[in-house]
Structures are given as structure tokens and as C-alpha cells.
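sorry for the late reply, my laptop died twice this morning and i had to redo everyting from scratch. anyway the thing you sent over, i finally got around to it. pasting the sequence first so we're on the same page, its 286 residues, then the predicted structure underneath. double check i copied it right bc i was rushing
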Amino acid sequence: MDITEMYGQVLTGTVTDLNKDEAFVQIDGKTFALDLNELTEIPELGDEINGFLYENQAHKNKMTTVMPFVVQGIWDFAEVTEVRTDLGVFVNIGLDDKDIVVSLDDLPFEHSEWPKKGDSLMVKLDIDHKGRLWGKLADIELYTQIARSPGADVKNKDEEGTIIAIRESGAFVMTESYYIGFIHVEEQSQPLHIGQHVKARVIGTSHRRLNLSMRPRAYEEITPDAQMIVAVLEHSRDKKMPYTDKSDPDDIKEYFGISKGSFKRALGNLMKQKKIEQKDGYTYLK
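ok and here's the structure:
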């Protein structure tokens, strides 16, 4: 078997040599180094060991008994570790000394829609004819196969998930509950890119998917008056101020420049969102 056919495979070999850090395992005349710190006890010459084979970043043939969580035929989310506009993005699949590339051919044409470091992509291991390991990006059809169908009780619920595809009309999401969601461009609070973690609320369902919105509910919107109160509290000692909904209207007008009615509405808005609390004649920032 050619060595390029071994990369990415789980095979069994024989220990032919040892040093203080590594065991050297031979398979069909090819030698792979195995870190001894992976093993509970030092092997002996002639022992057989089963492990995953690959070429690391330093072009050294390696075996590991710690299986990567992404292999051939197994899809999982992998964290983006580096972005290269001339190549694609590198993702961590669980190998200590090697990240694999998701090719730019699998990524959106617009670089602004590419994932960023720390984002997550669902990939499986792909191996080309030269034995090189690649990350194959999941497409929308795969997500459709593994997604759940939403029930009637999801309306207005909060969901978190990962952007999996960008379209001109909006973005598709795989939620942590394994629903597919769609965020229309008018319901987005910012430009989105694949791999991005987002929070959104369910505003409806259609075609076995959730319709999502990143826009706040009406009561969650912070008015300019409420923003001013939060700013005052953030810059106050102990995050408190001697003004409440019981304060004198003239004192409120002099300090904040707004009427007591506007002040009370702003306080009510912030209390509904549990951003503030009132006690002992003070308003506190939570």
C-alpha cells in the first residue's frame, strides 16, 4: 500500500523502535511516529498498535490513538483556526499538530461571507489522490436530512445556532436544537457570514424550517431615554443613582432634561428587561 493511501485511515502496525518520547510503528514498510504520552504504558518492541495515520504540519508521518472527531463519513462541527484568502480556512478536527483546510472552492465567492477565526463549520474528512486531508463543507441538503421538523409551540421562542449558508434574500441557520432556520435580510441586525454564531427568535414556520428574526421584541428595544439612564448608571459610583420613579419631577427635569413621564417610561422599559432595579430610594444597574 502506498503511503498516500494510508493517510486518514485507521490501521494497525508493529512497534519497531522506541525513544524517550515516541514509539515508531511500521505498516507495510512505512514508519509512523506515535507520541508516548498518549499511552498508559510504554509498549514493547513487536507490540501491535492501532491508530489514525496522517502527515502533520511539519510533514512528519504520525500515528495517533486519539481519534479525531471528524473522519471519513462522519460529520461534525470544527472550529476555524486560521483564514487564508488564497487557500481557504483551517479547522481543528482534534489533531494536536495538524489542522485541515476547507478549500476556498467550497466557500462563498464573497470573502465578507467567509467564516472568521473561532467560528464553527460542519465538515467531514476528505482525502485526495495525493493523500492530502481536506475538510469537506456540509451543504444545505445534508442539513435538511438531519434537521428536525418544528412543532406548533416554537413561535416566539429564542434560538441559538450557526449560519450554514448565505443567499441574496437571507441566511440559513442550523440551530442548537437541530432545526433549520432562515433569517431574511430585513430581519438581520448585522451582516452575516457562514460559521457565525447567532441568537434569534422564532417569528413563524414554513417549509419545515423556522423563520427567525435577530431584531429585538418591541419591549426589548431600548429608547434613547433608556440609553441615557444606562449611560448614567454605568459611569456612576457603585452603578447606582439617587433617582427613581418616585423622584421629584423638577429634579428629573434638571438632571436628565426630560419629563417625569418620559423618565418613568424609560425606567419601566429597563425594568422589564431586568437591566435595573430600584430599592431604598436608588436605581441600580444589574
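The chain has four domains: 3-64, 76-138, 148-213, 221-285.
thats about all i looked at so far, will dig more tmrw
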